Amino acid sequence: MVMSKPEQTIENPFAGWTTIEEAADMINRDRSVIRYWADIGKIACFPVGRKMSLVNIDEVKAYSATVRRKPGAGKRKS
Description:
Blueprint: E1 17-19, H1 20-27, H2 31-39, E2 45-48, E3 52-56, H3 57-66
Antiparallel strand pairs: 1-3, 2-3
């Protein structure tokens, strides 16, 4: 009888984390706003490689709910 090792469940360390661009799309804000919040320390942001950074979407949504928008402000038209 051969006994196998029990399989370990490994949690995804990136669950709940997304790119700045995707977070901006999810909350209908411009990505520069998300980057600004990260730069001033309101949300955590971790660089991944040279051109991409990850933010926690729950943290972004929570902080976004506390910030008033300027009238007419929204996502930039590309």
